[in-house]
Amino acid sequence: MVFKGVSHTADVYWDGCLLGRHYNAYTPFTFVLPEVEAGEHEIAVLVDNSFHEESALHIPNDYYSYGGIIRPAAVEEIADLFIERMAFTPLYTEVGWSGRIDVVLRNTSEERRNARLHGKLGEWDVPFAEGVIVPPDATRKVSVTVPFPQAAAWSASEPQLYPLEAQLFNDDGNRVLDDLIERVGFRTVSTEGGQLKVNGEPVVLKGFNRHEDHPLCGAAIPYPLMVHDMELMLDMGANAVRTSHYPNDERFLDLCDERGIFVWEENHARGFSLKDMQHPLFERQCEDCNREMVEAHINHPSIIIWAILNECASDTMEGREMYRKQFDQIRSMDTSRPLSFASHHRERELCFDLADIVSVNLYPLWYGEEDPYELCLQARKWADDAGGKDKPMIMSEFGADGFYGYRDPSRVKGTEERQADIIQANLEAYLPLPFLSGMLIWQFCDCRVTEADGWLLTRAGTQNSKGVVDRYRRPKLAYSVVKDYFSRRNADS
Amino acid sequence: MVFKGVSHTADVYWDGCLLGRHYNAYTPFTFVLPEVEAGEHEIAVLVDNSFHEESALHIPNDYYSYGGIIRPAAVEEIADLFIERMAFTPLYTEVGWSGRIDVVLRNTSEERRNARLHGKLGEWDVPFAEGVIVPPDATRKVSVTVPFPQAAAWSASEPQLYPLEAQLFNDDGNRVLDDLIERVGFRTVSTEGGQLKVNGEPVVLKGFNRHEDHPLCGAAIPYPLMVHDMELMLDMGANAVRTSHYPNDERFLDLCDERGIFVWEENHARGFSLKDMQHPLFERQCEDCNREMVEAHINHPSIIIWAILNECASDTMEGREMYRKQFDQIRSMDTSRPLSFASHHRERELCFDLADIVSVNLYPLWYGEEDPYELCLQARKWADDAGGKDKPMIMSEFGADGFYGYRDPSRVKGTEERQADIIQANLEAYLPLPFLSGMLIWQFCDCRVTEADGWLLTRAGTQNSKGVVDRYRRPKLAYSVVKDYFSRRNADS
Amino acid sequence: MVFKGVSHTADVYWDGCLLGRHYNAYTPFTFVLPEVEAGEHEIAVLVDNSFHEESALHIPNDYYSYGGIIRPAAVEEIADLFIERMAFTPLYTEVGWSGRIDVVLRNTSEERRNARLHGKLGEWDVPFAEGVIVPPDATRKVSVTVPFPQAAAWSASEPQLYPLEAQLFNDDGNRVLDDLIERVGFRTVSTEGGQLKVNGEPVVLKGFNRHEDHPLCGAAIPYPLMVHDMELMLDMGANAVRTSHYPNDERFLDLCDERGIFVWEENHARGFSLKDMQHPLFERQCEDCNREMVEAHINHPSIIIWAILNECASDTMEGREMYRKQFDQIRSMDTSRPLSFASHHRERELCFDLADIVSVNLYPLWYGEEDPYELCLQARKWADDAGGKDKPMIMSEFGADGFYGYRDPSRVKGTEERQADIIQANLEAYLPLPFLSGMLIWQFCDCRVTEADGWLLTRAGTQNSKGVVDRYRRPKLAYSVVKDYFSRRNADS
Amino acid sequence: MVFKGVSHTADVYWDGCLLGRHYNAYTPFTFVLPEVEAGEHEIAVLVDNSFHEESALHIPNDYYSYGGIIRPAAVEEIADLFIERMAFTPLYTEVGWSGRIDVVLRNTSEERRNARLHGKLGEWDVPFAEGVIVPPDATRKVSVTVPFPQAAAWSASEPQLYPLEAQLFNDDGNRVLDDLIERVGFRTVSTEGGQLKVNGEPVVLKGFNRHEDHPLCGAAIPYPLMVHDMELMLDMGANAVRTSHYPNDERFLDLCDERGIFVWEENHARGFSLKDMQHPLFERQCEDCNREMVEAHINHPSIIIWAILNECASDTMEGREMYRKQFDQIRSMDTSRPLSFASHHRERELCFDLADIVSVNLYPLWYGEEDPYELCLQARKWADDAGGKDKPMIMSEFGADGFYGYRDPSRVKGTEERQADIIQANLEAYLPLPFLSGMLIWQFCDCRVTEADGWLLTRAGTQNSKGVVDRYRRPKLAYSVVKDYFSRRNADS
C-alpha cells in the first residue's frame, strides 16, 4: 500500500486497525501488509492538516497546507520477497557512459530467501550477481556498475530516457516474484570553475519557483493541469523549475524528465526562525523528509540540485549545525548532485561554505528600492566573503506582487504593470552577469497562503500574488516580459 | 485671494513676486493684496507634494498626498476695510434659541476707519452696536448675542439652515463696503450622562470614515461626485461621517449641513510616533491646522465633534502634553462642541481624561481574532480606568479589507465575503451596547496610499482596501450588510 | 482499441495504415485489430475539428468544438471471440425486481465458435443458456430475463448500484476468453398521469444544463474537476442534469449514478434549421450518434430520459419526419426510458405528440419581457393543443447572461444581480406549478462558443455567459439564489 | 433662463405656470420672462426620459438616454432689449484675416427701441453701424465684416483664441443694456482636391467617437472629468473627436478649442430606419436640433465638420430627400464648414453626392472577416461610384468589443487582446492611404445602452464595449496600440 502524498498527518487504518502514522504532506510512504485475506477490506485514512504541536514543518506559512490525500495512492499485491526500490546513478568517464544500479530487496517472511535478479536498461542487459540471499525480515542491497557505451545522454534539448527494469525470480528462475521499472537518464552534474555544468557544459537556469496550488484542486493538481503548467513554462522559454518549498508530485518530475526541464528539488522547510528549528521534532521530521525525497526521486535525471531549508536560521551557529547535518545526510545518499539552499541573510549568512551552489533570495525593487544589478554584485561579494568563493551562484527568488486584473496607468506597486516592470528590471540585470548560473522568478503561479494576521497580511486576499500567472493560470502582463527575456537569451546562446 | 486647499506646500506668486507660503493640503488660506492695478496679472502657485523635511504632517501614510490645487480658489475685490470672517454659535436656554455672532473686521489701510455693521439671520435683524472703529492695519471683533425665539432647530431629520448675513457700511451708512453670508443652524451638542446629545437628545453615530479620493480626480473631488458619495451613505442609512484624517472640503460639509449628517471633523495628523511628533515643525503646523480648521468651519452645524491626532503617541507623557495643548487651543476658539481623538493604545492610553468623548480604533476579526463584543466591553473598561469614566464612547474605526471583485467561497481574508462577515460581526456586537454613542466603519471608499515598502505592503495594490465601496464607488458585498444594519436600527429607534 | 471521444473527426492509423474514420466528438468508437504481433506499434490519430463539409452536426454553434482526443482511449487485448457489449434493463412487476440482460458476443474469426456464458449481478447468479454458438465473423445476442427479488432499488436518495459481470468461457468451460463488468441499478421510469415517475413516484427535476467546458482543459475535463462540478450542483440542491447538447463522458454519468442525479441525455444536434437538417449527412450522422449513445450508456440508471435534436426544425413537416424517425430508432433500442426533445417553437411546434415528455426552452425576462408564470401557463396550453396533452412537461431551458465580476446597482442586463433576479423570478414561477416535472437552468457553467459574427455576437467574449458559475467555476450571485430555491423545495417535499 | 441640456423632454414651470416644453437632450434652450418681480420664485423642470410617442429622436438605442438636467442651467437678469446671440465667421483672403460678425438683438418690449452696439475682438475694435433700431417684440440682426490683419490663426498646434465682446448701449450711449462675450478663432476649412484642409493645409483626423457617459454621472459629466477625457485623448496622440451621436456640452467644445482638437459635431439621430424617419415628428425635431446646434456652437473654431443622421436610411429615395433638406438647412445657417454624414450602406448608399465629405462606418474584422485595407479601397470605389468622387473620405467608425479585464491567450473576440489586434489592423491599413482624411475609432469610452432584447443583446452588460477605455476610463490594451499608431504618424508628418 503506497501513498504518494497525504497532507499532512495521516493515520492509516486497515479494517479499523492502525497501520501507522505518516507526517509531511509532500513525501511518499508505504505499508506492507503481510498475508492479506482475499475479500473486501477497508482502508481508512484519517487526515489532519491542523497546525498541531507535533507538526514542526507544517506551520502557518506563505503557502497553504491543504488537507487530504493530495497525491495518488495504490495497493499492490506482492510476494513476501520483493523489490523495495532501485536507484540509478549515471557515470561518465573517458570510455563513455556507465551507471551504478542499486536494488534493494526486502524479505518480509521469517525465512531466508534465495532469488535471482535480472535487469535490463533499454535493450541492454544488466548483469546482476547470480543469486541473492535475503535474510528473514530484512532488506538486502544489490549493486552493480555497468557500462552503457551506446547510451545517449539526457539533456535539455534531447531528454533521452530509458526504462530500467529489474525482475526478481525465484531461486530456480522460472517464476517472477516481482518486478520494477524505473525510467532513467544519463547525465552528469558538476560545479567546477564557478559554473553549474550538465554533461560538462555550463548551464544557466532560467525558470520559476512553483507551488502546487490550484483554486479548484488545492495541492492535488490533476495531471492535465500539470501538463498545462509545463506548457506555460515552456512557452515562456523557461528551462528550470524549483519545487519550492517541498518535494513535488512525481508525475510533475516525470514531465520535467520528458521535456528537459532542470529541477531544483528541495525539502520541506520554509522561513524557519531558530526557534522554529528548535522544535523537538524538527530535526527528525527533516531527516525523514530528506530521506523520503531522495529515495523516491533519485532516478529523475531532471533533478540536478538537492536543496534544503529555504530562508531558515543559517545566520546562526545553531542553525549552521543543522544545515551541516542535513547536507551530510543527503550526501550520504547521493553524491551525484550538487547541494544548495536559498538564503536571504545577505552579509550575515554563515553556511555558504557548506553548499555547492550559493543561492540567494532577494527582491530588489519590491521590498526595497535597491538596484538589481548593484545588489547582485553586492550579493556575490557577500557570498565570496562568506565561504562561497568560486561556487556557482543562483538568484533563487526575486519578483513582485501583481494582482491579476489590476492595471493602472499609475503603475503603483501591485499593478500588473509594476510587476512586469520589476521583473523586467531584474532579468535585465541578471542575464548578462557571467557568475550567475540561474535566475528563478518568484513565482510561477499565485498561491493561497495561511490565513492569519501579522506579516501574512502583506499577502492580500490570503494569497501570494507574485505569480506570473494567477491561480487560474491566466497570464499577467509580466508573462510576455518573461517570455521575451527567456526566449531572447535562448536565441542568443 | 483665497485658496481652499493646495496639496500640500504652496508658494503663491503675484506677477512673479512671492506672496507667501502655505503648508497643509487641507486647510484654506488667503492673501490680501493692497492696491491692485486694473489689468492682467499672473498668479502662479508652485505646489510641492514631496515629503520634504519641512513637512511634519504630510509623511508617507495610509492615504495619498496628491499634488496640486485640490480645492477651489477665488479672487475677490475688496475694500481696505472688510469683513474677514464671522462666527455663529447657537445657544439654547429656557427661553429658547439665541446665538452669539462674532464678526471680525479688518482694516488694511493705514488710517483708522469707522463703519457700521448691519446683520440679518433669515428674516430677523441682527442688531450690532451702532458704529465700529477699526484701528489702522488691525482687526476688530464685534460680538453680539441675539435671541431668535422663532428659530427652528437644525437636526438630522430636519436640517433647518438659515443665512446669516453681515453688511459693512461706511460711516454714514449709504455705501456698502463689504458683505458676508454664512449659513448657520441652531443646535446644541453635549456629553452629559455618558451620552452624546444633540439638542438634548441622545444620538448614536452610525457612519463612515471617509477619505477624499477618487481614481480620476485624486483629492479634488468634483461636487457631483461628492453628492454621489453622500447619496451612497444615505442609502446605507448612515447618519454620520468622520473626515478622517483631515479637515474636509467645505462643499462636502455643506452637503452634510443640508442632509442632516453628523460630522466628526479632525485635524491632519495620522499615526504619528513620538518621534514624528517631535519634528521641530510639528507643533506649529498642528496649531496652524487647528486654527484654520476651526475658523473656516465653525459655522457648519453638522460638525458636532472636533478631533485631533488620530492614533498618535497619546500613550506617552510627552505626547500627552501635546494633546493637552491642542485641546486647549481648540477650546479657546470654540466651546460649543465636544472634543475627542481616536486611540488604538488600548490599556496604555494616557489621554482619555483630556477629551470629552472616548474614541477607539480597533479591528477585531481583522488584525486579530478577538470577539468584537468582548473587545468592546474590554475597551470600555480600559477607558474607564484611564480617565474616560462617564464619557460617551465611540468605535471610531473598525473594518476589514475587501478587494472589489475578489469573491471566493473560501471566504478567506480579503474576499468581499469575509469583509462583509467581519463588518456584520462588528455591527451586530456594537448596536446593542448602551454605552456606545457611535460606530464609524473604516471606511467609506478605498483610497490610494503612499507607495512604499514596510508596513505599507499590507496595503495591497498601494490602496487601503477597507472601503465599503471601491475607489470607483462600486458597492462591495459589505454594502448591503451595512445598509441592513444601519437601516434596521433606524427603523427600530 | 477504444476511443471514448475524439473531437470531432478522427482518422485512426495503425502503423501508418488507416483503420477507419469516426465522426462526432461525443460518442465512443472501437476498432478490432486481428492478430496483432507483439512489439512496438504506432497508433496515430489525425483529428480535425474544422467545420468541413462532411460535418453535419459540428457547425458554428453556441458551444465550442474543441479539437483533440477529449476522452480516454484504451487498448485491450482480446480473443477473437469476445463480449462486445452487455445491456441491462430493470423491470418491476408485482413480484418485485427483475432484469433483462442482453449480451452481444462477437466472433472475429472465420470459424464458428462455441462458448459458455456465466453471469453474476452482485452476489446473484445470472443463468445464461448453457452453450452459445457464434457464427464466423458475426455477432450473436444472448438474452435472459432474471428475477432479482432481493435487489434494492436505485433512487436519488439511495443510489444503489450493482456490478453486473459476464464471463465468457471456452466450450469446455475451463478457460476465460473474455469478461465484462457493467454497473447497473434497478429503477423504472414512466410518464403516467402527466407526471414523470421514477419507481412509481413522481419526481420533479431541478437542475442544470451543462456543457463540458473548462478554460484550461477544453472539453477534456479531468475527473477531479468533474467531481467538483458535481459537488457544486449538489451543494445547490440540484437533482438533475441535462447533458446539453451531446452525450457526455461516461465518467460523469458514473458520478450521476453514484450520487443519485437524474440525467437527461441527448444526442448531438443543436439549433438546426431545416436547411441544416437537410445536409446530406445529417440523417446518417444522427443515426450513428443515437446508436452509439444508447449502446454505450444504456446501463446508467441515472439516465432517465433520452432526447434528440434540441431546438431544431420541429415546426416543419420535413423536420417532423426526422424527429419521428429518430424517436423510432431510439425506441427500437430501448423502451425503458421516456423520450423528449427541447422545443422553442411555442405555438408552432409540430412534434409534441411524438415525444413522451413535452419540453420547452423559453427565456422569459431575458429574450423578452414576458412573465415567467404566465408564459409557462401559455406554454402548457400550446403543448396541450399540439398533441402534448396529459404528458409531463419540463422547462428544459431558461436563464440569463451574468458576467462574472460585473455587478452594478443599476441591475441592468448582464450584471450578476440581474441574472440572479431573472433566475429567481423563473424558479419562483415554476416551483408551484403542478404540471411541471422539471426545470433545468441554462446553464451550469459558462462555456466558450464558436467565434463568429452574426447572432454569435450576442455571446460576448465568445462565451455563453448564462452559467450560474463561470468557466473557472466561480459562483455568481445567482448561485445562492438557486441554492435557496432548490434546497427549500427539497426541504418542503 | 437658459438650459444647456435637459434629457430629454423638459416642461419648465415658473411659479407653477408652464413656460414651455423642450425636446432633445443635447441642445440648449431659453425662456425669457418679462417683468419678473423681485423675491423668491420657483422654477420647476419636469423631465421625462421615457421613449414616449412624441419622441422621434430618443428611441431605444446604442447609448443611454439618461433622465435629468444633464448640463448647466442659468438664470440671467436682462433688460427688455438684449443681445440674443452673436456669430463669428472667419474669412481669409489675400490680404489676410477678416471676420463677419452677426449680432442678433431682441426687443421683448412693446415699443421700438434704439440702441448702440460696440464691439471688440481681442484688442481690436469692431465698428458696428452707429445706431440700431429694433422694432417692438422682434429681433434684428446686425452684421459687419471686419479685417483683422494682425490676427493669428487658430490651428491644432497653436490654438489661438480671441474674446469677441459686444456691448449694447442705450440710445445715448451711457448705459450698458447688455453684453455678450464669445470666444472665437481664425481658421478656414475646405475640401479641395479630395482633401480636408484647415487653413489651406491638409489634415488627417485621427481620433475617436465619444459618448458623454460616466457610470457615476450619466451624461452629466463634471468638468474635471471632461478634462480627464481630453487628456487621455491627447496622451494617445489624437487630434480629433466626433461628438457621436449628438451635439455636445459646450464646455467640452471649449476644451477642444483650447487644446486644438478638431471636432466633427453631428445632430442627434442614430441608426434610423426609413420607418423611424417617417415618424410624424422626425423632421421637425431634426430641424430644431440642427438649428439649436448650429446657433449655439457656431463660434467654436474646433468644429470643422457638421454632420447629420448617422447610419440612417440614406439608401432610400425617401431618406435621401430628408438628407437633402437637412443639409440645405445647415448650409443656410453656416457655409464655412463642410458637411458630412456617416454611412454604413456600402454600395447601396445614395447620398454621397449631397455631402462635402464621404464618411463610412465599417467594422472589418469585427462584424465580418474582411481585410481592412481591401475593404477601405472597396469603400472608396463605392463612394466614387455613388457621387463621392474627388471628395475627402473619412473612416468615421471602426473598432471592436473589448471587455475590460477580460484577457485570454485565446485572443477570442471580446478579449482586450483581440480588440487591440483589430484596431491595430485597421490603423495599419488606413494610415498609409492617401485618400483618407480621417479615421475615428469607435469609440473613446464604453457607454451604457438602452436595455432591451433583440440586437441590443449584442451589447453585453447593456454596454457598448468598444471603448479604448472603459466607462471608468481605465485603459484597455488597445490604448497603447492607438497611442503607438497615432503618435508615430504624428512624429512622421
UniProtKB/TrEMBL annotation, chains A, B, C, D:
EC number(s): the record gives: 3.2.1.31
Q: Its Gene Ontology molecular function terms?
A: beta-glucuronidase activity
Q: Which Pfam families match?
A: Glyco_hydro_2 (PF00703), Glyco_hydro_2_C (PF02836)
Limits of the Glycoside hydrolase family 2 catalytic domain? 192-486
* Glycoside hydrolase family 2 immunoglobulin-like beta-sandwich domain segment(s): 82-187
The residue ranges crossing the membrane are none
- The lineage's top-level taxon is Bacteria
Keywords, alphabetical = Glycosidase, Hydrolase
Q: Which PROSITE patterns match?
A: GLYCOSYL_HYDROL_F2_1
State the family named in the UniProt similarity comment for this chain.
Belongs to the glycosyl hydrolase 2 family.
Q: Mind telling me what this protein is named? A: Beta-glucuronidase
Organism in which the protein naturally occurs: Paenibacillus allorhizoplanae
